[in-house]
């Protein structure tokens, strides 16, 4: 990478983290990174093409909501669960995504999901189960992280449960308070 002097540190760290994580993982339900470039203060990531776009766009997009049947919903939930299980249990160092949301799940034409956006992901040191940096999309964050500023494996459960709830009920996290 070159010419990174004009890029805010947080963006550069997220960019580098995304590259680091995605070059280390191989799973059918995790987006494939084909390349990257950082030049003149601009950063680009080149991913595989995923036809339908994000799950959030499919459910609530301007093109009109798509009615997903139960088979498609189950396929999406299972695919995301497999990706998360792979990250937590099958990588040399466990990886915690920290931002599983409807917009970070892309769908292929047959509703096969791809998890993306690993900019806030963490490689979990096996000697430590806690850290105090909050990251992720509000509304999808685990309550243990929001209230206690602590991460451990028990705090992970809320994230995928929120996505499952929104997918099965068709609710929107942004309209939940209205």
Automatic annotation (TrEMBL):
Lineage: superkingdom: Eukaryota
A UniProt-annotated Pfam family: Pkinase
Residues in Protein kinase domain copies: 1-178
EC number: 2.7.11.1
A molecular-function term among this protein's GO annotations: protein serine/threonine kinase activity
Keywords: ATP-binding, Kinase, Nucleotide-binding, Serine/threonine-protein kinase, Transferase
Taxonomic lineage from the root: Eukaryota, Viridiplantae, Streptophyta, Embryophyta, Tracheophyta
Protein name: non-specific serine/threonine protein kinase
Catalysed reactions, semicolon-separated: L-seryl-[protein] + ATP = O-phospho-L-seryl-[protein] + ADP + H(+); L-threonyl-[protein] + ATP = O-phospho-L-threonyl-[protein] + ADP + H(+)
